[in-house]
Amino acid sequence: MDNILELINIYSVYYKQHLKKDANILDNLNNDNDTNMMLELLYEEIHELKINLNNDKYICMYDLHNLEFDKSVIDKIQHNKIYIVECNQHKYLTFNIVIALQYLLTQNWKDDKWFLHQVKTY
């Protein structure tokens, strides 16, 4: 359970930085049927990840500093989002924000400087 809360905390920081909104995950939740943009975007990513769990190329993180990185893998994945996560001199590409958040969980994300960028979206 601690990892889920940490993941949500990291996502909240990303959301505030990315969308320049001072929001929290519980905003505008007054009853069981309510939702908000922050929750909807996270749900979308979780749903996409669930659909693609058997696709090794989708659930991987690709090291952008590795000279053997095959850029054609981007074209092989039929997905409309690409994220770049940077932390501690490392830069990775992934197709799902949850994968990037899980990586940041393994880092000292509270103290280290990190960036998460959505670089492709349709």
Please give a quick description of this structure:
This protein is an alpha+beta fold and 122 residues long.
What features would you describe in this structure?
The protein is an alpha+beta fold and 122 residues long. It has one domain (2-120). Helix content is 42%, strand content 16%. The protein is built from five helices and four strands, in the order H-H-H-E-H-E-E-H-E. A four-stranded antiparallel beta sheet has the order 1-3-2-4, with helices on one face. Strand 2 (82-87) and strand 3 (90-94) form a beta hairpin. Helix 1 packs across helix 5 (97-105). The longest helix has 18 residues, at 2-19. The chain is globular, with a radius of gyration of 15 Å. The protein starts with a helix and ends with a strand. The model has no long low-confidence stretch (mean pLDDT 81).
